[in-house]
Amino acid sequence: MNTTVILVVGVVIVLTAVYISWRAGRLDRLHIRLETAHAALDAALLRRAAVCLELAGSRLLDPATSLVLAAAAHEARTAGPDEREHAESDLSRTLRAVVDQETFAEKVQAPELLAELDASVAKVVYSRRFYNNAVDVTRIAQRRLLARVLRLAGHTPFPEFFDIDDDPPKAMAGA
Fold it and tell me: What CATH number labels 16-159?
């Protein structure tokens, strides 16, 4: 009887340790996924800003439109972490205003540049959705009782969503 109790307690302790280890490993994998998604989002945002700067410097747009687009793209590229969402939303709105002009398709006769712009805008949309999905899953895992009590997340900060206005221009939405 005594050895049976010791054996049962030992099995329970081992199973509990395995479960806790599995949860900690899952949380670690979620944080890695979150970091990877953040890097992909950052790359997509930088790519979109670069394509916007290329369009602004291509002399295909009128000077005022080029200046406004270049300023918005530069602001998005150089914004700090606190103002990044606002600057990226401004770039999205500026890009929509530029591309949705009635004469945009007539002025810009560069199919490669337009295809690159369309691809970069779409990639921002998908990257942001993927990142916010990773944030949601990670936040749920960090809120679980076991993760909070045993501090399985360590000292990692609670992840924040990246909310920007990333609606594509109407002229590109159908493409």
Answer: 1.20.1440
